[in-house]
Amino acid sequence: MILYNSSISGNCYKVRLLLARLGVDYETREVEVVDRTAPRDELAELNPTRRVPTVVLDDGRPLAESNAILWYFGDGTPWVPDDSYERAQVLQWLFFEQYEHEPAIAVARFLVSYSQLPREQYERRLPRLEADGAKALAAMERHLATREWLVGESPTIADISLYAYTHAADEGGFDLQPYPAVLAWLARFAALPGHVPLAA
Amino acid sequence: MILYNSSISGNCYKVRLLLARLGVDYETREVEVVDRTAPRDELAELNPTRRVPTVVLDDGRPLAESNAILWYFGDGTPWVPDDSYERAQVLQWLFFEQYEHEPAIAVARFLVSYSQLPREQYERRLPRLEADGAKALAAMERHLATREWLVGESPTIADISLYAYTHAADEGGFDLQPYPAVLAWLARFAALPGHVPLAA
């Protein structure tokens, strides 16, 4: 299997986290993500959005969208529950991640720590990203205040998905001290056997 | 079952479209969505983001995020395929919808046709929304040029999800004439038995 990867992307990190825990072997192809004008022709036939992560399965079929890839490899393992309501709750958090969390926290992190743009070129966007990110973190804090994991009694791909950019939120200027339940959950997740860091 | 609903929201329309086709009975509770400062206290215990759609199942358990609700009701019916690769492709399009399509096309539609704001208050945001929306529509056009439905040989919840805001894109100022495969797919979808319009 081939993973079209970026070593700095949290979306790619999600996939690497799950595959490491499942012991799935794969090759990586590094894709340039900082220069947004790069054509990415190698992805044109594989993914309508030309984004990473994109995987090419052993039979040559492509699959894109980080959370869809998590579901594909996680379903049938303990990382996706069997119960239909819990499965839908996992999806609820995966869609929350892509709609409420990533567009604020990952985008702020990219602009501040990776874009190589002068701050005045994106400064105007930060207040909205900070407000949206704080809202997403507050929703996680309320939920995790009474739970160890986002869904059910054990970690799922919902935890993997939200761990990826939450644990790197400081690179986007977010201070997690006001979110003690989130901090405890991050520590719990990183202590699981087989954990791999973002920059491995 | 209760559906916390907005009659103008495409995200809610997705749920109504599937439930109509499945013949599932439900009550609706209309939630104010134009005034974004409304507290929405009725949703506080049901959905961390306080958004519609949110459903409360017959046993009292809540579920949120339109595409997670589609999966919950669709899985086990012809609207979600059995094959694991096709299931992941359905999810790929659902995540595409929430990350690439809805934040451009639904937001432009809301601002232009429903927000009741004077145009000068949101005009500055339109060029970016138009460019992002055109990119999403072009990705759909390329994919649908050689296919009747987004995944496999019959309609799935991916078609339901992307139909909702695509068919109303004109309300956001999008002209669909440059996307003939998308227009043909919209017509094919609306001709399916049991179709219900957005404003029923």
Give an overview of the whole structure:
Two copies of one chain form a homodimer. Chain A has helices at 10-22, 66-74, 84-114, 126-144, 157-166, 180-190, and strands at 2-5, 27-30, 54-56, 62-64. In chain A, α1 (10-22) links the parallel β1 and β2 (27-30). The two termini of chain A are 19 Å apart. In chain A, α4 (126-144) packs across α6 (180-190). In chain A, strands 2-1-3-4 form a four-stranded mixed β-sheet, with helices on one face. In chain A, 46% of the residues lie in helices and 7% in strands. Chain A has six helices and four strands, in the order βαβββααααα. Chain A has two domains: 2-74, Glutaredoxin; 84-190, Glutathione S-transferase Yfyf (Class Pi), Chain A, domain 2 (Up-down Bundle). Chain A is globular. With 200 residues, chain A is α+β, with helices and mostly antiparallel strands.
Question: Features of this protein?
Answer:
homodimer, 200 residues, alpha+beta, Glutaredoxin, Glutathione S-transferase Yfyf (Class Pi), Chain A, domain 2, 2 domains, 4-stranded mixed beta sheet, globular
Topology overview:
2 copies of one chain form a homodimer.
Chain A: E1 2-5, H1 10-22, E2 27-30, E3 54-56, E4 62-64, H2 66-74, H3 84-114, H4 126-144, H5 157-166, H6 180-190
Parallel strand pairs in A: 1-2
Antiparallel strand pairs in A: 1-3, 3-4
Helix pairs in contact in A: 1-2, 1-5, 3-4, 3-5, 4-6
